[in-house]
Amino acid sequence: MEFVIITGMSGAGKSQAVKVLEDMNYYCMDNLPPMLLPNFAELCKASTKSVDKVAVVVDIRGGIFFNDLFTSLNVLSENGIKYSILYLDASDDELVKRYKELRRPHPLSTTGITLNGILKEREILKDVKQKSNYIIDTTNLKLGRLKEEIISIFRDGKISHNLTISFVSFGYKYGIPNDSDLVFDVRFLPNPYYIETLKPLTGNNKEVQDYVMKYDISKALLKKLKELLEFLLPNYIAEGKTNLVISIGCTGGKHRSVTIANKLADFFGNENYRVTVSHRDELK
User: Fold this and answer.
1) What pLDDT, on a 0 to 100 scale, did the predictor assign at position 135?
2) Phi-psi bin for 180: left (phi > 0), alpha (psi -120 to 50), beta?
3) Cβ contacts of residue 80 below 8 Å, gap of 6+?
4) Which terminus of the chain is more exposed, N or C, with fewer CB under 10 A?
5) pLDDT, tens digit, for every residue of 238-270?
6) Residue 80: which region, alpha, beta or left (left: phi > 0; alpha: psi -120 to 50)?
7) DSSP, res 104
8) Percent of the chain, pLDDT > 90?
9) What share of the chain is helix, strand, coil (3-state, %, to 5)?
10) At what angle do helices 143-151 and 14-23 cross, to 10 degrees?
11) Taking CA 265 as the corner, what is the angle to CA 259 and CA 269, rounded to the nearest 5 degrees?
12) How confident is the model over 187-213, as pLDDT tens digits?
């Protein structure tokens, strides 16, 4: 029996994750008290119906019962039930934004200040996160992309690196993204902006990509960026980093940066990394 425990930060997408697994024919249970995990697993195992894939959401909604999680995990192991933990995470800023949009209080925010609840929850969950088999950072993930990530892990088995790489294109005229870990300036590349037919297009259009990448300097840059990141990424993983934001900037954020961000995302996505790509200033 495949037994998946879904946990993580409130607002990070656990509800969406369990819906995806339900669509993949997992028998799903939301908000199960941790102390009941072994009993629930045994019930599924002994069921007369064929229950070979189970997903359970366990999080801080269980209150003081959440402290029983590690005890229950030990019991699962002792009973020979193999399990995996999927942890959903997002940046503090993004979680605050989501709570404001939903107009709901954070379950641990006794003062009404959402960030205080988030920080408290992070502290409670830090050991669980460390024990997790899969960590998905949903800060820059749209629902469709989250679904793809979960399918890659639990159906296709393609994901081999527990690191989410977020490639973000931007325009320097609008400022550098605040959550950047690495920033690369590509303003020295030939600019499609000055080509009349290419000016209204973006780096998502093949014509712009072909123009940018036909120059030797662009090809050399892309090659060197790939080599640098191939060196850095395993070291970030060894350090325990689970989310890396790589920002690629040009003047307006429409042509060159979008092209390079797309090329890097395609390359590392094919290398079995979890990759997201977003273009902050593409439509400005």
Assistant:
1) 87
2) beta
3) none
4) C
5) 887 878 999 999 999 999 999 999 999 999 988
6) left
7) -
8) 57
9) 50, 20, 35
10) 50
11) 150
12) 999 999 999 999 999 999 999 999 999
State the DSSP string of 217-264. Answer: HHHHHHHHHHHHHHHHHHHHHHHT--EEEEEEEESSSSSHHHHHHHHH
Angle at 255 between CA 189 and CA 93, to 5 degrees: 110
Torsion of CA 127, 129, 132, 138, to 10 degrees: 170
Output the six-digit token pair for 168. Answer: 């973000």
Q: Which two tokens stand for residue 83?
A: 């399990």
What are the pLDDT digits (tens) for 114-160? 999 999 999 999 899 888 888 888 887 888 888 888 888 887 665 55
Query: Does pTM top 0.90 for this prediction?
Result: no
How many CB atoms are closer than 10 A to CB 32?
Answer: 18
- Cα–Cα nearest to 4, from 154, 114, 229: 154
Q: Are 30 and 57 in contact (CB under 8 A)?
A: yes
Residue pair 1/54 in contact by the 8 Å Cβ criterion: yes
Query: Which token pair is 155?
Result: 């159906």
Residue 255's Cβ-count burial label (10 Å; 0-12, 13-18, 19+) is buried
Residue 48 pLDDT greater than 70, yes or no: no
Is the torsion defined by CA of 214, 216, 218, 221 positive or negative?
positive
> Amino acid identity, residue 87?
Y
Is 62's pLDDT higher than 70?
no
